[in-house]
Specification:
The structure is a homodimer of 664-residue chains.
Chain A (H helix, E strand, L loop, with lengths): L18 H9 L3 H13 L3 H7 L2 H17 L17 H11 L4 H21 L2 H13 L4 E4 L15 E5 L4 E5 L7 E4 L8 E10 L8 E11 L1 E2 L2 E2 L3 E5 L12 E5 L2 E4 L8 E3 L5 E3 L4 H10 L3 H25 L20 H33 L4 H36 L11 H8 L9 H14 L10 H20 L1 H11 L6 H4 L5 H28 L4 H34 L4 H21 L1 H6 L5 H18 L3 H6 L5 H4 L2 H4 L3
Parallel strand pairs in A: 1-5, 2-5
Antiparallel strand pairs in A: 2-3, 3-11, 4-10, 5-6, 7-8, 9-10, 12-13
Helix pairs in contact in A: 2-5, 4-6, 5-9, 5-10, 6-7, 6-9, 9-10, 9-11, 10-11, 10-18, 10-19, 10-21, 11-12, 11-13, 11-18, 13-14, 13-18, 14-17, 14-18, 15-17, 17-18, 17-19, 18-19, 19-21
Chain lengths: 664, 664
């Protein structure tokens, strides 16, 4: 096609991408781990077809076998201590999990349940006795476990779970009980068929002094046997959740406990203990804070799901981009030959900003994975460690939300861009769409997670905020934190700070080049801080007026989400800009990543340009110029698109899709 | 919850909705037909479970039986002439089809294939002999047929189909042939298992004068037997398309023809005939025009799919709204009681604008269905009739695109709003999502359809545009139509016209009330005409500069889509405003529909407020005021939400969802 491949930008030379070198950049420090997973994926590629051809029960068994097989390669145990057969490297564990998302996602989720959620809870909430008892067999998959937190009545508000665990000092046992159907454990992966053990979250009822009256101590975790030799134990009822949208290889179930007794040692007692005589002690006095500390240790689940979402998006964008580079439809340029889809301006606009955002999120995910590794590898005590953990949790929450929404959106757009062929299961979108759909609401509902991000920003990750429920948080923020936020983000200060990095004084928005990363970052930072200040003011105004805190919160909730999103998008751009700098020595890669980074930054600003105009940071002319620049960047990236998706290093076996990827 | 149910607007009184009266408004002139379908749906509700529990082959048979059963009630034959057992009312046929979308969508699509596509092609492209031969058994479902248009290599560009039909005068037969795999018929519903007949679209090769050399006459349709007593006939190869994302009850297949001979009478010859000796004649000289005229008669398929998408969205929004009115999570307002989801501002923002748009699209669909009925019932000859048909086709294309994208988006948002429960098949979203996904790309890819809409606007539905391929269109528009469009839409004229309906002279944007429908319509009309003029200018500029028309087209393609979208959204608002006026005599309904209409109009403007700011029609302050008004409207609609979804009249049996709709 006589297409406008590269608009004439002075000095622009189309880069020549070394795909393997770019893959090395993307793979980062854990390239070997990722390659191990790629090899495992390729050798078990038949599972993608099994997912279609096998009945549900058969496929569940197949997935279980596969999980045990890949466990034997060491792939799934990398995050556990070496003394139990693990790899002792949490970062490696995340890299392995992310890469596994190139394949069948039932396998991925089963791995996540077994090693991340169940094994992770034993490791993080338990102590040596639990580790000794369970970790070795968990790592091999010999013992299957499940993570019984969510209940029918409570998914997001975990503090309000209904399952109870009352201590009986006479027998030194906890009695686990499901008082009603709202308190049944629900959607629990591995529960319907395979789990022999469960980590069960329940409201602990025990005294706090010798001979005292038992009282509620909040949610705690217990190891509870569910099955022996495949048979469900007495007092326990398990029901299959029934057919689901996707993830057919994962056996989700519901669990009821009828006064089930477990020994005192079943309590995962890293953060709280119950003595034989029934006295409760904890190193963390405040119950809210204790609860959030326990939950906080499970943050790797969110980091994992975020990474998995981003990698599932890579599969979709690789399929759609490759197809669009081959498929011809309609004679537009030189009849009678039809044009290649990717030469159409609209098609570039549909796919390439999503590709750029996929790269951006990839690098942001690398940052959060690294941060996770650091925080858990070098546990820092005191306030600094506390703050680092809170920041990690907020970043993990934000990246998970944006990464999984990006997956949903990208998979959908790519399916549509592949037309009817995209609808056939052989071409992968059916499974991608059905299996990833739940990513946006499990491991923390995305909207709830973004509220967590905003909370952290409003309180500057002060540990006090952990003492508060939703209701108290609003009052706290309004009373205590708002002035600080308003002070910190006051617009003239913000502009002054930004002036330092940008030319043009107060006119920076007009003067700075659109392709200057400092300009792009300044725009995203301005948005973030301005939104945060506005949010703080709205909260304060409502509380000062004597309104009910819940009503105030409800009124500003959309602003909460917007502010959190603005913050996370800025973090993502930070990560991408840093990544571009890291390849400074490789000129062609630098140009290619630079184009993607510009496209991500400008399409992000473009998508929210109304806000920037409303807040005086963008005039009509410049706003239109940004849209034109996005068009130009798409045209520049079009000839690079195939290399850019190839660099994800998705094994050919995982792409299947004979109809999409066959000869044009 | 101490929620802000209704912001204090002077004189505002919360309406008391008579749900049945509102349902009558929504049902329109075909309430009886819709009720018949509701009854049929309820009595066959078990099919929703069958879709999960049965294997693919069994479920296909079940769906086939069901289609034949409901055919016997008259529900599916309403659009056919009475003399063959039909209902003789095309409007009734659309109403029935739309309502069927409340149920299992394999049944819907099978009905669409059999009665809409196959039966519709026989009716519209054939003549009396074909009607006599096939219609009666088609209407009862005794004979199953398929519509073999799409090929692997050509979905959107139907004119370039590869299947050939050469006339052999010696035997008075057409020889149908598939030259290569790109030309195999693909994704054909009813082909893999059930169809005995196919309407096959192929390139006709025949002479235009006695003894002349056969030449290509373009795509024509033929009735071709595929099976006899269930066995595929010689020369024909049929393959199953294999597993799909959804619609498991529809047997999609691929068909190859190896020099298959059919008699001369197999040509559906309403618009073109071949004499026994092999001479081609047609009342329409121009081949492009002939082709588009033939295709144009099949427009009811698009009207049907658009309506089905909108009604599938109704199911999703009904489930999510009902759930959100019962589900409690997090104590925000009055601890320890948790708050109802729909009392949260964010949840209102997520669901209620989608509800408003569902209503808007419903009324827009009623308009296009009525127009379809009129055009086909009172066929008007000459230029007027021609223009009416072109306008209908454009409106059908636009409504289909917006209706089906709305379905995808609404179902996704509603699934997420129902959390993990939304992921379970019993709660309907799994099927809704998987089955409707293909709606955006079948019966015309939405992006291609919006280009068709824009073409109509640029050429003012001049019949000449039908003579042109994509390439020629760009040149034609640039050379001929652009001046007219620019003249017609010149901004000062536009503003003058708008001033007549609005107070405040040139300041109307500032003066007019946000809730004045004249203001809302003026905004959408301004956007539409301004975009169209801009598009025309861009096309002209490119062609004047000597650029390749295809390159010019590629460059403006995103503007083409935007202009078409703006046009269709304006039509939708027109339809909604008219619908509000039609209930003027019922004050409570008028208020309720007025709120929804305001919410649709303002959230539509809000979503594109960047454009309005860029083009001087919205200042920052007013833009923010629109967002606040959207918030207010959501709060006002919150207490009405349940009544508003109940008025869709979806049979309780179709909602299933015990987890979502059970007691709170």
């Amino acid at each position: 096609m006589a297409t406008e491949a590269a608009p004439e930008t002075p000095g622009y030379r189309q880069p020549d991408i070394d795909v393997l070198a770019l893959q090395r950049v993307l793979d980062g420090p854990y390239a070997e781990v990722r390659d191990l997973v790629r090899t495992n994926l390729a050798s078990h590629a038949a599972v993608l077809e099994d997912a279609e051809t096998m009945g549900r029960d058969e496929f569940r068994e197949r997935v279980r076998e596969l999980v045990v097989e890949i466990a034997a390669t060491g792939q799934t145990g990398m995050g556990f201590p070496a003394e139990y057969g693990g790899g002792g490297d949490l970062g490696a564990s995340i890299a392995a999990f992310e890469t596994l998302a190139y394949g069948d996602l039932s396998v991925l989720v089963k791995v996540g349940v077994q090693f991340g959620l169940f094994g992770g809870a034993i490791l993080q909430l338990g102590t040596k006795a639990h580790h000794d008892a369970y970790l070795r067999d968990t790592i091999t998959g010999t013992t299957m476990g499940c993570f019984a937190m969510t209940e029918t009545g409570h998914g997001s508000n975990v503090q309000r779970l209904g399952t109870t665990a009352a201590y009986d000092a006479t027998t030194q046992e906890f009695v686990l009980h499901t008082p009603d159907d709202q308190a049944r454990k629900d959607y629990i992966g591995n529960a319907a068929a395979h789990a022999e053990l469960a980590v069960v979250f329940a409201q602990l009822r025990v005294a706090t002094e010798e001979g005292g009256t038992p009282t509620d101590q909040g949610v705690h975790a217990f190891v509870v046997p569910l099955r022996r030799e495949g048979k469900v134990l007495p007092g326990i009822r398990i029901e299959d959740c029934g057919p689901k949208m996707g993830l057919d290889g994962v056996d989700n179930g519901r669990i009821w406990f009828d006064h089930v007794r477990v020994p005192r040692e079943a309590l995962l007692d890293r953060f709280a203990q119950v003595s034989a005589s029934g006295v409760y002690t904890s190193s963390i006095d405040n119950p809210n804070r204790r609860f959030f500390t326990m939950l906080g240790t499970l943050v790797q689940g969110r980091v994992s799901v975020g990474g998995a979402g981003i990698n599932a998006a890579k599969v979709a964008i690789t399929l759609a981009t490759t197809y669009a580079g081959r498929r011809r439809q309609f004679e537009a340029t030189a009849p009678p030959e039809e044009d290649v889809l990717l030469d159409y301006g609209l098609h570039q606009r549909r796919l390439l900003p999503l590709l750029a955002r996929t790269y951006a999120l990839h690098f942001a995910q690398q940052v959060v994975a690294e941060q996770l590794h650091d925080v858990f590898t070098n546990e820092v005590a005191g306030t600094d460690g506390e703050k680092a953990r809170r920041e990690l949790e907020a970043r993990a929450a934000g990246t998970k939300a944006l990464g999984t929404w990006h997956a949903t959106r990208t998979i959908q757009e790519c399916r549509e861009a592949c037309g009817g062929a995209g609808y056939l299961s052989a071409n992968r979108f059916a499974a991608l769409k059905a299996d990833t759909d739940v990513f946006t609401t499990f491991e923390g509902d995305n909207h709830v997670l973004l509220q967590l991000v905003a909370k952290g920003l409003l309180t500057d990750y002060a540990s006090e905020f952990e003492d508060l429920d939703q209701f108290g948080m609003v009052r706290f923020v309004a009373a205590t934190a708002v002035e600080t936020v308003i002070e910190r983000t006051r617009v003239h200060k913000l502009l002054t700070r930004l002036k330092d990095v940008l030319p043009g004084g107060d006119e920076w928005a007009q003067e700075a080049g659109l392709l200057d990363p400092n300009y792009q970052l300044a725009m995203l930072r301005f948005r973030e801080e301005h939104m945060l200040a506005g949010l703080a003011r709205r909260l304060k105004r409502g509380i000062d007026a004597g309104d009910n805190p819940g009503v105030v919160f409800s009124r500003v909730q959309a602003h909460v989400i917007a502010a959190a999103n603005a913050h996370v998008e800025r973090l993502v751009l930070d990560a991408f800009v840093d990544a571009c700098r890291s390849v400074a020595a490789e000129p062609d890669l630098k140009v290619a990543l630079g184009l993607l980074c510009d496209l991500f930054a400008l399409s992000t600003i473009e998508a929210d340009r109304a806000w920037f105009m409303e807040h005086g940071r963008l005039g009509s002319a410049r706003s239109k110029a940004i849209s034109r620049e996005v068009d130009d960047l798409c045209r520049k990236l079009r000839p690079l698109a195939q290399d850019l998706v190839d660099a994800f290093g998705i094994p050919a076996e995982m792409l299947r899709a004979p109809d999409l990827l066959g000869p044009a």
